[in-house]
Amino acid sequence: MTRKTAYFITPEAHCLVEESARIVVRPLLDVVESAEGLFVYCNLPGVAHADLELTVDKNELFVRGPTSFSCLPGKVHALEYGDVLYETRLALPLAVDAARIEASMRDGVLTVFLPFPRKSAQRIPVIKG
What's the rounded Cα separation, in Å, for the pair 124 and 17? Predict the structure, then answer.
């Protein structure tokens, strides 16, 4: 993965300048509990679906994704938002079923559904005796 940043932009050279490291930014997120599980909404503007990394390990959700802007068309007069690396680790407050996790990305918002484990209570027959 090519790492880029937007710190050295000039009107003469308006392409993003490659750097060895990006600024790491903790994305804004919301965690909502429903009867079926947890919903995590994570704001990741500019992150491509293919560049998104999402993992769950024990009781922790890890989200990581870089923004990747190509050369900007025209003469750049100001650039306040350059390439960053979004990264966060979220300690999950409750146990989840990792095998049934679902995630989708739309309009720069990652939605992750972390279902609670299914209840495994079984009816036990009582034999008359």
Answer: 67
